[in-house]
Structures are given as C-alpha cells and as structure tokens.
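Figure S7 source data.
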Amino acid sequence: MLNFSVPAGDLLFREDDPADCAYLVEEGWVEIYTERTGWRQSLSLIGPGEIFGEMGVIDGSPRTATAVAAEDCKLLRITVDQFQALLGRSEPFHAELLVKLVARFREAQRAWMDGSLLPRQESSAMGPGYSMLARHRDLACALDRGEIVPYLQPIVDLTTGRWRGFEALARWQSPVSGLRSPCDFLPLAERTGLIRRIDLHIAERVMRAIGSIGGTAPPYININFSAWHFKDDRLLPNIRDLLEKTGLDAHRMRVELTETLMLDDPNRALRIMSDLEAIGIKLALDDFGTGYSSLSVLHRMPIHVLKIDRTLVTGVLAEGRPRSVMRSLISLSRELGMEIVIEGVEDTETATILEQLGCNVGQGFLFAKPMPMDQAIAAWKA
Ligand code: C2E
Ligand code: CA
Ligand code: CA
Ligand code: CA
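Tokens for the predicted calcium ion complex:
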C-alpha cells in the first residue's frame, strides 16, 4: 500500500475510468461528483479515515463518479491485488456478502441516475446531526440550482458622493431559509474547497452585468477570490475565459485577496498575481489592519489598492493613536502609488475626517448596503 500526497484540485479518477485501486483518506477531503446529469453534481465528501473507490475494485466495474482532491490530501492507495488478497483471506461468506451488497448498491445507483434525482437531502435544519458532508452537499446543490447570488455594494468617492464601482458579495437565496449571509456558508466552502466554484460563479455573473454597462466612466467591479485560487495555476486561464465570455474590459476588474494566500506557496501566489497584473487586472489587498496583515507584505506583493478594514476606521474620530496610524497609512500608500479604500464607513463624521486625512474612496452603510445586482445597476444608471 502506497502513501502519497495530492495537491488540492488534482483529479484522482474520472467517471468511466477502469477501477484499479481504492483509497483511504489519511488527511484532507476528497469530493466525489458526477456530470452524468449534465451538470456537476456533488455526491459526497470523503474525509480522514474514510475509504472511497472500493466499489469498482470489488466488482470490477468502471468508475461511476469522478474524485477530486478538495484540499491538499494524504492518501493511502490500495490496489486491486491487495484488495483481492484481503478479501481472499476473509470468510467466504463475508466475501460473498460484500459482492452482493455492491450489486445492490449499483442497482440503486442506476435507478437514481436514470431518474436523475438529487441525492436525498439529509435534514436541512442545522441541528447537531447536520454533518459537514450534508452541509457541503446542500451548498453544492444550491450552487448548481443558482441559489448563490451576487449582491453589490457601491464603492464611493467621499468628496463627491459619486459611485465609482462595486464590490460583489455572495448571498445564499435559499427557498427554505431565506437570504443567508456569507458568514453562514463560506467558512464551510473555504474548508472543503467549494469556495473556488462559488467565487467563479459570482465572478461570471457580475462580470457579465458590469461589462454591459457603457458610458464614459463605467464602474469597476471588485471580486473576492479565496486564497485557494492561488494554490494552483487555473485562476489566470479561468479569468481569461470569463473576460472573453462576458466582454468585461480587464481594466475594470479588481481581484480582492487577503495575504493568507502567501502562506502555502508564496512564489506561486506571487507569480499568479503578476500574471493577473500583466493582463490589466488590479489587485486589492482586503481587510488590511486585521490581525494578519502587515506592512511587510506590501512591498512583496504587486498591490494596487489597499482596503482598510473597519476595525482601523472606528478609532479615527478622536485625535489619538488610531488617527495617527490612519494618517501614516494614507501617506505611505500615496508614496507607494496605491489607492486606499476605507471599508465600513457608517457615519458622516468619520467620512469627513477620512477625507481630511487624504483618503477619498470608501465603502459602507453610510452610502449604501449591499443590494441585489439588478437594483444596484438600475441605481447606477439612474
Ligand atoms: P469583506 O470582503 O471584508 O466584505 C465586506 C463586508 O463588510 C461585507 O460583509 C459587507 O456587507 C460588510 N459591510 C459593508 N459596509 C459595512 C458597514 O458600513 N458596516 C459594517 N459593519 N459592515 C459593512 P458580507 O457581505 O457579510 O461578507 C462577509 C465576508 O464574506 C466578506 O468580507 C468576504 O470576506 C466574504 N465574501 C463575501 N462574498 C464572497 C465571495 O464571493 N467570495 C469570497 N471568497 N468571499 C466572499
Ligand atoms: Ca472584500
Ligand atoms: Ca474587507
Ligand atoms: Ca472581511
């Protein structure tokens, strides 16, 4: 049996591949999905201690689903021969029973595929029995059904009050539980890697909508991309495709990222950032001033926009340390040629002071809350 590591996003096997081995997950998560229904449908999420791919090994049929590493994994590979040897050593009755059970499972699976029904949803209420797998599956299905939608929050010129662009913020419009905040479902998506599909889905929808707005000074669009995207090389081709498909000018797109993307493979992350920069996309460092962010990352990363977190903004009303910090940040960003966007502006006093300190772009409930995309676009055009 062979131990090996698989990077997030790597394919382990595809539907219809011959089944030559089974896997035991030691670390990480593997997503099993099918595209037989015509779209990508998540079937299950396999975690530490669980086995997958064993059905085909037992009955010799090809794979009926695709397996992909949802995050970096450590797996143990069990070949057909090893499996058969183990099976040979067990009681004939047990081996027979196993083969019968697999046949019964196959039959049920075929009936399910033919009817192309959704997998049975475990409880949709989030009780203690509501497992991570069930939540992942609910979210993946919600994404396939188009329930994950972008809201837009305007980014505003503090001096004139004019809207300059928007930030796209994901919402789950659930027919069961109503409008749900990203804090409710994104942490799980971050955990399992589903966040990548969510980000690209949101990106496509807002890029198409914003790309269709013309005029002399059309809005730009800020899109959040999880650190996940900076661990493999698909972000650039994916974004290129989206630009082409949606017709949005790359100069109107801003990728919001946090510096946690520097944790795993900083060189790869930096390369992806410069590739994005090279096609004209601006990079915005999100949540600057919260725990992790530090000045030291700024000169390493090709950052064009600094988004100052609300926690740094709340103290600026009184003369004192927080205001001094803000003042030096603003002058530093000017020296580095970066634009500053203040997040979470909730009152006029703060907006006025920030403007006096030399910051002229902000975002916050004072100007507008995130709103449905159509509403935001109608307001822009009005
Ligand atoms: P974020 O990127 O820092 O987004 C700003 C958050 O602050 C949003 O929360 C926004 O609604 C909220 N906000 C805006 N103005 C104000 C204000 O004046 N006061 C206060 N108190 N809050 C304000 P939201 O929409 O709940 O999003 C939470 C976080 O979820 C985002 O924080 C972002 O990290 C993540 N997120 C949202 N959508 C996406 C997405 O499509 N992809 C990824 N990867 N992350 C997303
Ligand atoms: Ca953001
Ligand atoms: Ca932020
Ligand atoms: Ca945040």
